[in-house]
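Q: How would the structure tokens look for this protein?
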Amino acid sequence: MYKLYADIIPVKGYSRSILFDITKNRYWYIPNELYGILTQAIDFTDLQALYPGDTGILEEYKSFLQENDLIFEVEPDEIHAFPAIDLKWHSPGMITNMIIDVDSETSFTSLSKINREIGKSGVEAILFRCFSETRLQELKEYIIYLNDDPSNRLRDIQLEISIPEKSDPEKITNDLKEVEKLPIVSTVTVYTLNKKLLTAPAEDGKIQVLEKSVTGPKNCGTIQGNIDSVNLEIISESMHHNSCLNCKLSIDSSGNIKNCPSMAQSFGNIAETTLAESLKHQDFKQYWNVTKDDIEGCKDCEFRYVCTDCRAYTERTHISPKGLDLSKPLKCGYNPYTGEWEEWSIHPLKQKAIQYYGMEKYI
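A: Here is the predicted structure in token form.
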């Protein structure tokens, strides 16, 4: 008798399934027929006796599972000694991550008011999105302050910055390299069409330069057709919570406190409201426990536990009785019913939502 290793997590989709190895950060696509076999202890001898016409296929399944070290042999009376892995998710902090947007209107004086609260809330990671290269110097100084502040619990800072074509590549590169040297900074992503910046060298490999124009929050929310990371943290959180908004607090470029900078609802402004006060609002956590199993289309998708979600931009087709938007993310081009990807912006059924969000010039 054989059993799937506990750290191999099978996820069933409509047209196919996936096996995720959360220890070795890898995955395999499998047919749904194999998924059905793997949900229990496997006796290939019994299966071949039950399905004599499928002996060849069953042998192929067994070879595939053994060659990739996905199953192990066990005596029937020892099955209980190998329990399933605990997929519960818990965080000791009220807020684990933040997004802070910066543009020409951002007040760093107001931002400084939340410094102490970043530590008190238990924030471990911050993504800064800078849409104005003229504020990079001030943002760099603010990140340095956070890096040196012993009162916070920050472990990771990421920076995304949009650089226009007409900019000084040497000055921008020097500023970015100063930020890159900070141990707390893990990645610096530059969006630009400036050819000189596209070839700028990166000393520590943290700087990634992408030939793309990003002008504001409406450029976010795109669901990519690749799987960057497979681990217990990602999968367990996605099984029980919203993979984008859970334990997240965001501040848009005007200082408004939101779930996500791209979402319309605000819970106050940092100039006059504390983060703690915003967290007490009855609607602040309304999407935290909305999983992909609740969302139309996504609930039939094999990628649902490793995919980022987007409640800011959706197809606007399904609203729950409580008023929650359970529609598929607008910027996802994957069809779980055919197993095919397409460019999301050309789909005819998405055009109405694109017009609703005023997104025509961003695609």
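The chain is about 25% helix and 20% strand.

The longest strand covers residues 156-163.

Upvote if useful.
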